[in-house]
Amino acid sequence: MERRGRDPGRHSPANNDSDTAVQETSNDAAVSRESAARLGYIDDPWIAAFVKNPQRRAPLINRGTYSRFHGIQSALRRFVEAIQHPQHPSAEGGSSSPVGQVVVFGAGMDTSYFLLPSDQRAAVRFFEIDFPDITARKASTIWRKRTLRSLLPADTTVAAGGTELHADSFNLLAADLRDFEPAVVPKLRDRGFDSSRPTLFISECVLIYLDPEHSDAILDWITQNVPNAGIITYEQILPDDRFGQMMIENLRSRGLVLRGLHAYPTLESTAQRFLSRGWHSARAVDLADYHDSCVEPSEHERLSRIELLDEWEEFRLLARHYAFTFACTSDSHP
Fold this sequence. Notes:
The protein has helices at about 15-40, 60-85, 110-115, 120-125, 130-145, 145-150, 180-190, 210-225, 240-255, 265-275, 285-295, 295-305, 310-320, and strands at about 100-105, 125-130, 155-160, 165, 170-175, 200-205, 230-235, 280-285, 320-330. By secondary structure, the chain is of the alpha/beta class. Strands 3-4-5-2-1-6-7-9-8 form a 9-stranded mixed β-sheet, with helices on both faces. The radius of gyration is 19 Å and the shape is globular. The two termini are about 35 Å apart.
């Protein structure tokens, strides 16, 4: 698939290598999620289908994966439950049509759609976007696994040479987010994206790999075109302390560059990124504070029984360098 863009060096071998390294993070995330699921940290019966070589991650990684999963899934469930509520303006009494939309940037092997109860899957039109190599592998796995395929809408078809899945309420789309307005937006609209619908955008360690000009262009388009939008991002922060510098070097050794990290390096700057565009609200919380404040005490007790976490200081240091940002364009967003 041809990828158009403004960067003159986009198609150089070095940039192609960088794209490949970024795509490989999809497998890393899936392996970590499968580890957490297999040990009982999270309830995800579907992730194993996407992992060929399972590995048991260290306890502090499993705890971090749990916290990341908890934050994303909680935001998604709140959104869907809100639009299902009879008093929500978007709820259509007696209608089985989707009333809201979810757009997952760089979805990788994410299983969020399959984790939703059937009534919640019916309430939203779900879009997943990633590189063609990633979507091809995901589409093939879903189509071959009867249990996964049975959860897709009945009208699902394989499209774009096996790189996409199309249905009225679920679409797996192959695209390069750096070409958002010229390439991604037309695909979304062609598959039924409705800018007037309440929409939740999800981005887990995705926008930060883009040059700020590209990630900002995505947010600008949302600002200008989706009046009832919300977003949850999960990204690295704090590049300038000792741990942050070590994190950057470790990623660079794998061919990975966090291109947006220095543009938005703190909790305050990640929230201000949205507020400066006129969004109604935005707040950011690092993973350590989220783990301590937003995870229920009963869950802490349950997790402690799964495996012992001795490296609390190391966990908190790591978790301080990852953050959720929650933002919405209007006060009517669920």
